[in-house]
Amino acid sequence: MTANKVQGPVIRVQGLEKSYKELQVLRGVDFDVARGSIFALLGSNGAGKTTVVKILSTLLKADAGTARVHGFDVATQPADVRESISLTGQFAAVDEILSGRENLVLVARLRHLKDPGKIADDLLNRFSLTDAGARKVSTYSGGMRRRLDIAMSLIGDPPVIFLDEPTTGLDPQARIEVWQAVRELAGQGTTVLLTTQYLDEAEQLADRIAILHQGRIIVNGTLAELKQLLPPAKVEYVEKQPTLEDVFLTLVGDNGKNGDVRQISHASTDK
């Protein structure tokens, strides 16, 4: 099945549940991801973001609920799902002994693709790594390694890519480099599901943002819709719009003690 034959959302998650013995990590997670968009799954450490990604990439089985990726059911059609996706984890999976180009050529050969050298050169150019292509990866900066890691994930042109906290441990400049790479992915039609605990990252990149808290999606909307959950603050007669950080901390900052869970989907709150 090709991407243009997939009807509706490229990723659809309904009622997803997962527990580890007595620990209930996911408690009925629902969300859709549109084709060619960047969807950010935002949450604190331990919120269940990586568990969602593992289920969607067929590395883990859900206890309940359904999930479809690129038109395929993750439980009953795992091979088709794996052919449609690429996964980049929290740490760059690159071989430091090899050069950047050699890393790319190796993956292309493992996937039995024609002309792996051309594939490698095209990706080095796409991610602004051509000048460093012949250097060993051990000499790369954190941002360069991460960009190379994402480039390796794109070999074979998967229509869907999962980025699990892709800028963890990177300095500000390296993060900006990765953000630009992610924007270019979506700009070329790749559907991106991004997990992050960085509020500014979601704010900068995402077309839609879902906040995962205590195993549930408590809000899901565009940045503008999420900001409308809080009234603007007025300081010296200047209206100040709430930031995504304001929204996040208001919703989960009390650790859910008040039990007031607010949900939105595709519409903002009534005025």
Please identify the top-level CATH class.
Answer: Alpha Beta
- Sequence of strands across the biggest β-sheet: 6-7-8-3-9-10
CATH topology: Rossmann fold
How far apart the termini lie comes to 43 Å
Largest sheet: 6 strands, mixed
**Poorly predicted tracts of residues:** 265-271
Radius of gyration: 19 Å
Count of alpha and pi helical runs:
9
**Average pLDDT metric:** 86
What is the 3D shape?
Answer: globular
Number of domain units: 1
Pairing-aware structural class of the strands and helices? alpha/beta
Strand content: 15-25%
Quickly give the CATH architecture: 3-Layer(aba) Sandwich
The portion of residues assigned to helices is 25-40%
Walk me through this protein's architecture.
This protein is 32% helix and 25% strand. By secondary structure, the chain is α/β, with parallel strands linked by helices. It has one domain: Rossmann fold (3-Layer(aba) Sandwich). The strands form three sheets. A six-stranded mixed sheet has the order 6-7-8-3-9-10, with helices on both faces. Strands 2-1-4-5 form a four-stranded antiparallel sheet, covered by helices on one side.
Topology diagram in text:
Blueprint: E1 11-20, E2 23-33, E3 38-42, H1 49-56, E4 64-69, E5 72-73, H2 78-84, E6 85-88, H3 100-110, H4 116-126, H5 142-153, E7 160-164, H6 172-187, E8 191-196, H7 199-205, E9 208-213, E10 216-221, H8 223-227, E11 233-235, E12 238-240, H9 244-252
Parallel strand pairs: 3-8, 3-9, 6-7, 7-8
Antiparallel strand pairs: 1-2, 1-4, 4-5, 9-10, 11-12
